[in-house]
Amino acid sequence: MAEELLIAHSAAPLGEELAGLLQDAGFSVTTADNLGTAQTALSRFPDLLLLDLDLAADPMTDLEPLAQGCLTGEIPCLLFSSLGMDPDRMRTLAPWSSGPLLSAEQRDLVLDQVRLQLELVRLREERDLLAGRLEAKKIELREGLRSAAIIQQSLLPNFLPRSDSFRFAWRFRPCETVGGDLFHLRQVAEDSLMAYLLDVSGHGVSAAMVTVSVYQSLSPHTSQLIKQPLDHPPHYRLSTPAEVITELDREYPYERFEKFFTMAYLLLDPNSGQVRYCNAGHPPPLLVRRDGTVETLDVGGTLVGMGGLVPFEEDRLQLNPGDRLFLYSDGVTELPDPGGELFGEERFFDLLENGVDNPLDDQLEMVMKVLDQFSGGQSPPDDLTLLAIEYRPNGHH
């Protein structure tokens, strides 16, 4: 479709010559012989205006409606003068325009300038179209992140298990881009409590979808992964931590989801205080003894989803009254300060060692305050997750 050009010119021959030149070049040309007619034609949004400044008796006043029409409609304007006005004078009288024609008498220069202005219009329209698409994509992404955040929040424990032997506390602060952290505590048998914390690689909706799926896989009500059925009482056998991790590694291959995740999985016996665990590439849970010494629970294997490169192992440990277990995500130790320095394991371990005399919930609250101070109040680049378990058998104090 031919571009629409509007030529507003006086009765001098130059305007008619320009109209003939541009029509011969394949453009659709409308002409106007006064400013009022030009203003009416401008409301139909031509692609380009060629304006003879000699139409205006008082250019500073008479051209104001045309100037507003061009600016509002983003219509470029090239100037010329039938009476030979100086180009610098034309620029002064119409600073809102694209400038004067370099030489209204030279055909090639006129066509080059017109085509350049029309190409600029086309590029501007493409820019605006891409900007609109980008804004729509941003809105879609924000909605996706909001939905992912709602999903992630819905998977967190609504309440903590009731136990005469354990105290529990947790803190969770999601990052703006929605990380892949997920944790849970569940009573899975009369003598067993399950605790896990996992971190799916990446952020956003895709990471949230994997957390949903893993959450469902670890539901004792719908999955045989936690409890393996037997044909005799009690009609089930609890899977060991290494068995659970191994099965998850089979169900969530990287090739299928393009995600892997780290995970710490524990089974706790409230009667004996014994803990069985497997740690799959996750920051090792910490055992803080009542005397303040720290042990890391680092037996396990590699990332979940890597295809069983190395068999997963598990270990056992014995809790004593007052001992505390801390599961956490790497968002804690890798939290940066405004200068880019990471919080690190040493600071974190010191906080846990020095807080053993505080109530469990108060200790986690103190840790979060220190993290806030360290980061300067900035939003964390990754989820911050802390899950704490204290062994208090028979109400032991």
Automatic annotation (TrEMBL):
Entry GO MF terms: phosphatase activity
Pfam families xref list: SpoIIE (PF07228)
Keyword Hydrolase listed: yes
Domain PPM-type phosphatase intervals: 163-391
Gene3D superfamilies: 3.40.50.2300, PPM-type phosphatase domain (3.60.40.10)
Keywords, in A-Z order: Hydrolase
Record InterPro entries: Bact_Sigma-Reg, CheY-like_superfamily, PPM-type-like_dom_sf, PPM-type_phosphatase-like_dom
Protein's name according to its UniProt entry: PPM-type phosphatase domain-containing protein
